[in-house]
Predict the structure.
Amino acid sequence: MKRLEGKVAAVTGGSHGIGAAAVRRMAEEEASVAILDCLDDEGESLARNLVSKGLDVAYWHCDVSREQQVKEALDGVADHFGSLNVLVNNAGIAGPNKPTHELTEEEWDSVQNVNVKGVFFCTKHAIPHMKKAGEGSIINLSSIYGLISAPDVPPYHASKGAVRLMTKTDAMLYAPDRIRANSIHPGFIWTPMVEGHLKSTGEDLEEAKRATAALHPLGHMGEPDDIAWGIVYLASDESRFMTGSELVIDGGYTAH
Ligand code: NAP
């Protein structure tokens, strides 16, 4: 298929989980795709694997919480592929699973530095390239926890709420430049992040998986591809009239 023919996309946190699925599906739809991550071995190996299948993918080391690294990586992507049309702000961390009154300032900041400031830095340094290209699509990974909350991981929920509104602000700011911005709100998707989060509860992992699956009316957790297909849609011109919106892909979690 050629749903993304001619597009150049950068995916932060693209080495594994949802990001890796997005890289694979976008490349299969004929986008040129840059993987930005700190997991160099996994990212380079994913890029090699996809290149061996004839797809146009390359890897850049980039910690999204470091502005200079973000600027250098995105400028490098635009140089290498000739432009930048799509930014998937996917890198994120769950952070410490403690109640608010036990959190330290450092723990709070560590989550905001990646989940909020990282989205700011990447958007800031992608915009000039998108303006030059005359169009763009920014896809921000918020969460069901940017819409509703839960009695755990306070810095994470705060960060995902922030990302939801940053998306709407940027949608309005850059609409005149034909740059769209939308947020995606996944339910629980089985990835290393969710595995780590469920282990942090101290419960039996299999029991925690069953209980988490049961929170979704469809009766199971999602897979990375469930979100990757939403990312392909938002990256493509099929969604050309969509900006400032929330794409909820959650097995019915927020329908309660
Ligand atoms: P994941 O499996 O942990 O993958 C996230 C990727 O981002 C990892 O490769 C991670 O590398 C990377 N990363 C972390 N900090 C980074 C930084 N400072 N700079 C660059 N890369 C960094 O997570 P996921 O479950 O796929 O989640 C992807 C996004 O979807 C996140 O924003 C998450 O909040 C959101 N989301 C996920 C779910 C879910 O159920 N999985 C639900 C709602 C929303 P390291 O492993 O080295 O940290």
User: Anything to note?
Assistant: Residues 12-13, 15-19, 37-39, 62-65, 90-93, 114, 118, 141, 143, 186, 188-189, 191-194 surround NAP (CB under 6 Å). The two ends are 36 Å apart (CA to CA). The chain is about 45% helix and 15% strand.
